[in-house]
């Protein structure tokens, strides 16, 4: 999701760099945002494709075929879709984890060096809850822990596949995601307000560190992006 919250600010930061192409896959089209991104740096070709991460693996592969046919090379995949609502158990797991596993699996078709592919880089957006759970939202926290874990194993397979991977894990960031959301079994009816009492960071400072992490491109890194800082977390 490149057009909402942290995603849009990250896209803004990315197009300021020396990119050739930025392809955005999102459920909802936002022509104004696309036009803004194109205007920031006319040297970057910005393309939008409608995509829902909960679509089956075969559909994802089909879309990637179209994108690879058009661009020939794709260097980095950023998996950034996420929802926070512990009433929607299946959808949380589908969007936050299953979708990310599917896009990663699908792109390996094109990147895997065992198939003559060029390799590539996968950047998955986790959350600090992946290693420091907000216990009132165990479904969300566990889905993000799964992202951190899955990405670590993809990173360990890099010598076989040629594909490296790392996670960026934002702390509490001022996005629509945290304005209002449901706790699991309503264990904490005021979960959003309570979260709001904690220090937060802006989507812009998060996005700036996000792009730094992409530029550092460290295989297996678990980056914590909190309160405007970027720091590595040790995996145990």
TrEMBL record:
One of its GO terms (molecular function) is alcohol dehydrogenase (NAD+) activity. It catalyses: a primary alcohol + NAD(+) = an aldehyde + NADH + H(+); a secondary alcohol + NAD(+) = a ketone + NADH + H(+). One of its GO terms (biological process) is alcohol metabolic process. Signal peptide: none annotated. Gene3D superfamilies: NAD(P)-binding Rossmann-like Domain. Its EC number is 1.1.1.1. GO terms for cellular component: cytosol. InterPro entries: ADH_Drosophila-type, NAD(P)-bd_dom_sf, SDR_fam. Keywords: NAD, Oxidoreductase. Belongs to the short-chain dehydrogenases/reductases (SDR) family. Homodimer. PANTHER family: ALCOHOL DEHYDROGENASE. This is Alcohol dehydrogenase.
């Amino acid at each position: 999701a490149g057009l909402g919250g942290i995603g849009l600010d990250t896209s803004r930061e990315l197009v300021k760099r020396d990119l050739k192409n930025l392809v955005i896959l999102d459920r909802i089209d936002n022509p104004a945002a696309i036009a803004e991104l194109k205007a920031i740096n006319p040297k970057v070709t910005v393309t939008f494709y409608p995509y829902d991460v909960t679509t089956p693996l075969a559909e994802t592969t089909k879309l990637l075929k179209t994108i690879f046919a058009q661009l020939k090379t794709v260097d980095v995949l950023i998996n950034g879709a996420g929802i926070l609502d512990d009433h929607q158990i299946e959808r949380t797991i589908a969007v936050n984890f299953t979708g990310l596993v599917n896009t990663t699996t699908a792109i390996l078709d094109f990147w895997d060096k065992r198939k003559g592919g060029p390799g590539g880089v996968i950047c998955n957006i986790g959350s600090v809850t992946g290693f420091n759970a907000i216990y009132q939202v165990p479904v969300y926290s566990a889905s993000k822990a799964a992202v951190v874990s899955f990405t670590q194993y993809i990173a360990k397979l890099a010598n076989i596949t040629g594909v490296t991977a790392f996670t960026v894990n934002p702390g509490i960031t001022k996005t629509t995601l945290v304005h209002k959301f449901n706790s699991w079994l309503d264990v904490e009816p005021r979960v959003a307000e309570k979260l709001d009492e904690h220090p937060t960071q802006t989507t812009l400072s998060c996005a700036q560190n996000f792009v730094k992490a992409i530029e550092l491109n460290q295989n297996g890194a678990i980056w914590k992006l909190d309160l405007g800082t970027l720091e590595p977390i040790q995996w145990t």
